[in-house]
Amino acid sequence: MSKHPLCDAALGGNTFAFGVAYDEYAPVLYGLLLRVLRDASDAQEVLQETFLAAWSDASKFDSARGSELGWLISMARSRGIDRLRARQRRGQREEEAGREISRVTSDVDDPVAFREIRAAVRSALLELPEAQRSALQMAYFDGLSQSEIATRLGEPLGTIKTRTNLAMKKLRERLGAFRTR
Amino acid sequence: MTHEEIQQLAALNALGAATADEAAELRRHLATCPDCRRAADELDEAAALLALSVDPVAPPAQVRQNLLRSLTRRSRGLAPQWWMAAAAVLIGLWLGTWTQLRRAREEIARLKSDRDKLSATVAAFNRSRVFHLAGQEIAPHSSASVFLDPSQRRAFVFFHGLPPNAQDKSYQLWIIRADQVKPQSAGVFSVDAAGNASIVVQHLPVDTLIKALAVTLEPRGGMPAPTGQKYLVGS
């Protein structure tokens, strides 16, 4: 099987194969977008936008630089964060949204190819000190800047930057190898 | 900035946490530094994979349907390629059919022409004058029928039961004319294994001048005048 079935399908104009690849990736991206946006309707819109962008921009994917999964996640996440910030600017973020998301439970299994990566990501995160882990998660899932995190935690900006860097360094050591798999 | 500092920036950038100025500085450095570029790629991948710390959730089927529907619409937007390919196939099929049709027409024309020739031949037989040639001493069981079509000055000649001729020999048909002493050659032929053959003789003399016909065995290709034994004679 191709290491980048989605881009192959898009470049070949093969909507059937694209749908098959969508089925593999969509649950990962949708889970992420639900976590970032805490709103199913927004998450679904961004999910669709992401795959439309992947269809159009497949030629920009460079397998030497990272995995197709990583490429898709980056697109979904940055679109999700953009949507989140736009919503925050409009002051529309519901305070109770957090409760809604807690009702979303995992209802699918990963494709075999992702299971090993997921296990590695989770164990790498668990090995981080709590402070590093939460600095990482606030930046990644909530799209907070380092100074926003510092303000929220009441810590110096330098401390937050150091924690984030240490956390990313460990993650890179543990997960960098998946880059070209 | 040191490479170490750049890679720290790359770590923040991978999380989308670098400021615009920091991101710009990072891009400038990465454009010329393969080591930091590789480190940045690894940091980007590691950050992206953080998504896997969240449980996967199956999106509603509606998302997939909408997605594929809009991709199909986009594909139609690219229609020229698709459409041209389809048109090329149709033109190919049409050309193939047209070629077949043309061949069929040619075949029909050929068959019509054959039929006309056959009709003419049958008509010729109907108005023909018939000669029978009898086998001579050397081949008493052989015979020949000559259908002479005076209007076309031609004859269809059918030979039967002649001994097969050797490779270096040909049978030769002669016309003995009323106005000439010397026999006139009307063609050479070989017989098949059963001793049969048929020939068409053109440019015959006027039928009233044909006194008799004869067949001799001659050296291959025939002779200007008969030299061999007579196999068939008739008048």
Helix/sheet category of chain B: alpha+beta
What is the count of β-strands of chain A?
A: 0
Bin the helical content of chain A. Answer: over 70%
**Strand percentage of chain B:** 15-25%
Would you give an account of this structure?
The complex is a heterodimer of chains A (181) and B (235). Chain A has nine helices and no strands. Chain A has 181 residues and is mostly helical. Chain A has two domains: 1-108, Rna Polymerase Sigma Factor, Chain: A (Orthogonal Bundle), CATH 1.10.1740.10; 111-181, Orthogonal Bundle (Arc Repressor Mutant, subunit A), CATH 1.10.10. Chain A starts with a helix and ends in a 6-residue tail after the last helix. Residues 95-99 of chain A have low confidence and may be disordered. Chain B is of the alpha+beta class and 235 residues long. Chain B has three domains: 3-57, Arc Repressor Mutant, subunit A (Orthogonal Bundle), CATH 1.10.10; 75-126; 129-234, Sandwich (Immunoglobulin-like). Chain B contains five helices and eight strands, in the order H-H-H-H-H-E-E-E-E-E-E-E-E. At the A-B interface, helix 2, helix 3, helix 4, helix 6 and helix 7 of A face helix 1, helix 3 and helix 4 of B.
Write the layout of secondary structure elements.
The complex is a heterodimer of chains A (181) and B (235).
Chain A: H1 5-11, H2 15-37, H3 40-57, H4 68-89, H5 97-102, H6 112-127, H7 130-142, H8 146-153, H9 157-175
Helix pairs in contact in A: 1-2, 1-3, 2-3, 2-4, 3-4, 6-9, 7-9, 8-9
Chain B: H1 3-14, H2 20-30, H3 34-48, H4 61-77, H5 79-126, E1 129-135, E2 143-149, E3 154-160, E4 169-177, E5 184-189, E6 197-201, E7 210-219, E8 230-234
Antiparallel strand pairs in B: 1-2, 1-8, 2-3, 3-6, 4-5, 4-7, 7-8
